[in-house]
Every structure is written in structure tokens, then in C-alpha cells.
Amino acid sequence: MKRKFYIVLFILAPYLISCVSEFRPEVIDPRLPDYSEEGLNTAGAYVDGFPWTARRKLSYFFIFPQGISGVGDIYFYRGEDSTSNLIAFEFGRHDISGLEKDVTIGFYLDDSKIVKPEDITALMGRSIALDGERNYGQLFLDPRHRTADQGPDIEHRGTGKLHIRHVKVQTTDTVVVSGTFGFDVLIDGVLHTVHSGRFDYEVTPSEMHLFRK
Amino acid sequence: METRFFHHKKRSLPTYWILLFLLSFNYTAHSQLYLDLSVNYDFYQFDEPLNLQNDKVIFLPRIGVTAFQSANKKFKLSGETGPFYREFDQNFPGHKFRYRFAGWMMSPVGSYQAFENLYLDAGINVLFYNARINGKGLTTPIGRGFRGYNIGFIAGGSYYLAEWFAVGIRYTPYFVKMLEYERIGAYGDFEPSKKDISTQRLELFIRFQILNSMNK
Asked: What is the CA radius of gyration of chain A?
């Protein structure tokens, strides 16, 4: 009897192993990256209901110094006093039914004090309320005209939430940071929505910058 | 503080099952061997925001071995195996994505001789497959969130026009929902886990009896 049980167990083993559940949030829209915690260097959200995606691309910055760098990348900008930061996903692609344009999404965080990648670990597990006062969401609809490195856009402050769900130190100067977000922002009398956002980036010192003067 | 872990699914190898299947029947002294060629159509039930479309019929072969037949020849038990495939589309404004599920299937099937040439079939259909997505503007080709297996109940029948040839029909509703996922809410909160996409398969087939050492 016991032997029969083991034979049945052996036959069913692959099936039982395959039953292990898998945590895969937001997998139903292939236009956006899934939420991940692996440093895949992607971000995505619905901006005004249309998909917005950012993906780090190889830059020719060193060959063409005047060219645009940081397309689809994450940047941690800070002021001279290094007390607050503007985290920006630069030049993401906003796809409005096939019509594409560049849009940058960001977050201004007061008193965050991020100067180097390992400082991000202090945000691990935090759900930050974007209250529109100390912390707020940023939406640069024309990032070539008004770039995030010029500093926060204090006229248009988005309210919502930023969740830093995963921070992992990879090496001494490389950190993986992943999270989710969403906010609403009023720009020129129009309420814009940035909803169901997710990001997963590997951050190195090259993503840490002072605001451009 | 919310902590999430990723559980990486270990997929069973179809070869493992095929090997077991072949070994099971390798030593059967008297058996029937048959080849089925089938035309399949899949029906899907799903909730919003999914918007799936399917207009394809799928042609699939399978091989079967009848390993047991009752003394009065009224009842027989067979094992079937073969490749498995299904697909559907999901459309968005300006985008069309095709989801493809390819793998292997196995079925133990019992048949009862209701009339002289008519057999009624009932069995279990076990599927193992991988999910892939194709389409312009895709972020990942891997069908994450899709289960790599499914189990269905086979109901149908086959009518023998000749000793070596039969036509048949089968209907297979599947028990396991194909997709499990958690949505990200508007403001970044994870919403409760949701299971979606039920499927049923309707199949017409022709059968060629290749070997028959049971002296049917």
C-alpha cells in the first residue's frame, strides 16, 4: 500500500511542483512592463488612460555630448543643500492610440537626502503620500521644453502615492529600486492622471545629479 | 512594511510525461494503436478589462493506445498523448497582441460501446504548456501570470465507419482558470489576486486504427 502511494506521488510530482503559485501583478496589458523587482530598468503607467513606458537605452552621450542622454532612464536630482530630491523617469514614451510623444514623470521628495545610491535603502518599504505640499508628483508633458534637471515644477504639484516596495544593494555603488505609484495633477486647468505606475531600476552613481543651474 | 517575493515556477518537462506514458504501454502484449487528426475550436470566458478574441481553428494530431478491453468488449480504456496548442488575441487601440500556448497533452480515456459502431468517451485531459506573446510594442514576450498547466473533463463519442476508420466529436471544459494576477490600483496599491479566463474546447476528429492486436 505504502509502495503504491510513493509510485502515485512520483507520477504526480511534476504536477504538484507546477502548482506553486506565482506572484505576477499587472500582467494583463502587454503594452506596459510588468511589476518586477529584478532591476529590469523599466517603468510604466497609464497617463490620461493611455500607456506610458520608459526603458533605459544605450546612450551615445559620450560620442555626441550635445545629444539627449538618459532616454527612458531614472535620475535622482538634488539641490546644492542635498536635502530634497526630484526622482525622474526621463523621456518615457506616451502612446496615445499610436501617436507617440515624450513625457517625463517624476516625484519631488522633501527631506529625502539621497546623494548616492545606497541612500535609497532608507526608503525601503515606505509608502510616501504625495500631499502636494512637501512631496508631490511631477508630469512634464513636454520634457524637451521643460526638463526635470531644471528642478521641480512647483506650479503643478501632483497628489497621490509613491510606494518604494523593494530596495536591494547589488554592489557597493549599485542599488536596485522597485515600486509603484499614482497621482493626479492639474496643469493649465486640465486634470491629468498618472495611474497604476510601476518601476524597476538599477541605480548607479551616474544617475545621481545636481539640478542644472 | 510590505514585502513581496517572487516564486519561480518549475515547469514539468513534457518529455517526463511522454516517457512515463510510453513505458506504461511498452509491455502491453495486446493493444490497439490509433492516430487521431482533430480540428479544435476554443471558447473563452473572461472578465474586464480583458478583451480576448479568438477566430482560429487549430489542427492537432494525437496518438492513442488502448491497453484494456473488457471481456464482453463493451468497455475499453485508452491513453492518448500529443502536442497541444491554443491561441487568442487581445486588442488595444493601435495594438494587437497574440497569445500562444504550446505544449503537450495527455489523456486517459474510457470508452463504452453504446451501439454496434458507436462508442461514448469520457476522460481527463491534462495539459502542460508555455505561454508566449507576440505583437508590436510588446514589453515582454513571456506570458507571465499564465498557469503552465490545465485539467479538463472529456466528453464525446466516436463512430466507426470501418474497422480501421472512425469519426468523433469531443467537448472538454477545463477546470483551472488560465490566468492569475494582481492589479496595481490607480495610486499604486496592489489589489487582491484575481483568477480569470475559463476555457472550453470543441473538437471534431477522424481516427485511423493503425494496429489492433485485440482482435476487435
From this structure: 20
User: What pLDDT is attached to residue B1?
Assistant: 37
Domains, chain B, with CATH or none: 14-212 (2.40.160.20)
Distance from CA of A141 to the nearest CA of B (A): 19
Is A57 inside a domain boundary? yes
* Preferred mutation among B129, B139, B177 to probe A, highest tally of A CBs within 10 A: B139
Q: Does A100 touch chain B (CB under 8 A)?
A: no
Chain A residue with minimal CA distance to B6? A23
Residue A48 lies in a domain: yes
**How many C-beta atoms lie closer than 10 Å to residue B187's C-beta?**
22
Range of the domain at A93: 36-210
Q: Do A30 and B9 touch (CB under 8 A)?
A: no
| Number of domains observed in the structure of chain A | 1
Q: How far apart are CA B50 and CA B73, in angstroms?
A: 48
Which pLDDT value is given to residue A24? 57
Query: What span, in angstroms and rounded, lies between the C-alpha atoms of B205 and A174?
Result: 58
Predicted ipTM of the assembly: 0.82
Q: Which of B5, B139, B181 sits opposite A33 (nearest CB)?
A: B139
Position with higher pLDDT, B216 vs A40: A40
* Phi, then psi, of B111 in degrees rounded to 5: -125, 140
Residue A121's φ and ψ, nearest 5 degrees, are -60, -25
Q: Is the pLDDT of residue B2 over 50?
A: no
- Decide: pTM greater than 0.90: no
Give B80 to chain A, closest Cα distance, Å.
16
